[in-house]
């Protein structure tokens, strides 16, 4: 599997702190049995799958406070 570059990840998630949180949450989901959203070799670790999904734009994030305000209006 080719290396995942930080520049490619930051394009989809501009804050490196949000990137770490998003990747860790997605890694937990994958370890609990959620379906992969990208094609990877079968022995790929969950953290690498999560980063690949972020790199390809298969997953993103939504800030909860903003979502709650939009729903209230």
What does this structure look like?
By secondary structure, the protein is mainly α. The protein contains 4 helices and no strands. Helix 2 packs across helix 3.
Question: What key phrases describe this protein's structure?
Answer:
73 residues, mainly alpha, Eukaryotic RPB6 RNA polymerase subunit, 4 helices, 58% helix, globular
What is the CA-CA span between the terminal residues?
Answer: 45 Å
Largest sheet: none
Task: Give the CATH topology.
Answer: Eukaryotic RPB6 RNA polymerase subunit
CATH superfamily: RNA polymerase subunit, RPB6/omega
How confident overall, as mean pLDDT? 87
Q: Give the number of DSSP strands.
A: 0
Strand content: under 5%
Order of helices and strands: HHHH
Number of helices: 4
Radius of gyration, rounded?
Answer: 13 Å
Structural class: mainly alpha
Write down the domain tally: 1
What is the CATH architecture assignment? Alpha-Beta Complex
- CATH classification class: Alpha Beta
* Shape, per Cα inertia axes: globular
Helix content: 55-70%
Which stretches of 5+ consecutive residues score pLDDT under 50? none
Condensed summary:
With 73 residues, this protein is mostly helical. The protein has helices spanning 6-12, 16-31, 46-55, 64-72. 15% of the residues are buried.
Question: In terms of topology, how is this protein built?
Answer:
Elements: H1 6-12, H2 16-31, H3 46-55, H4 64-72
Helix pairs in contact: 2-3
């Amino acid at each position: 599997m080719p290396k995942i570059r930080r520049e490619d990840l930051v394009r989809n998630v501009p804050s490196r702190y949000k990137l770490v949180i998003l990747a860790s949450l997605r890694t937990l989901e994958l370890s609990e049995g959620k379906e992969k959203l990208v094609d990877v070799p079968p022995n790929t670790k969950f953290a690498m799958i999560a980063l690949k999904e972020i790199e390809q734009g298969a997953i993103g994030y939504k800030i909860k406070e903003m979502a709650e305000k939009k729903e209230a209006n």
